[in-house]
Amino acid sequence: MTTNISSSKQAERPRVQIYDPPMCCPTGLCGPTVDPVLLDIHEAVITLKAEGITVERYMLNSQPYAFFANPEVMKLVREKQMAALPITVVDGRIVKTGAYPTLEELRRELNISQETT
User: Fold this and answer.
1) Which of 24, 32, 65, 90 to pair with 18, CA 20 to 30 A apart?
2) Nearest-CA neighbor of 94 among 110, 112, 79, 73?
3) Using one digit for the tens of pLDDT, what is the confidence trace for 43-93?
4) How far is the C-alpha of 72 from the C-alpha of 17, rounded, in Å?
5) φ and ψ at 87, to 5 degrees?
6) 35 exposed, middle or buried (CB, 10 Å; 0-12, 13-18, 19+)?
7) Which residues does 113 contact at the CB level (< 8 Å), separation at least 6?
8) Interior/surface letters 51-68, b for 16+ CB within 10 angstroms, e for the rest
9) Cβ(67)–Cβ(81) under 8 Å?
10) Is there a cis peptide before residue 86, judged by omega within 30 degrees of 0?
11) Beta partners for residue 93, in sequence order
12) What's the CA dihedral at 30, 31, 37, 40 to 10 degrees?
């Protein structure tokens, strides 16, 4: 019985999916220079996960199946190619393309505020 309640709560949790362009790592800490944009989105992901939000990131070069599994994402990739990436999806809705969202933008899309966390 507890498993069913837990599963029900899991299904109700907000979900963020980020479809990344091909890259060596999602943290921004690989290579000879640090990418501040990747650092910012990585920190946002860590923050949201700590608050109980489900966040998944998919890289085109290592997880293409995740792209194929989402017809709306694939449509954007076909139309705009790499310019569409990254693509951010919140609870099944595409909320941003071509750039990473800020933590504030993600909070707004998730209908959460810093005061409630």
Assistant:
1) 32
2) 73
3) 999 999 999 999 999 999 999 999 999 999 999 999 999 999 999 999 999
4) 13
5) -120, 130
6) middle
7) 107
8) eebebebbbbeeeeebbe
9) no
10) yes
11) 90
12) 30
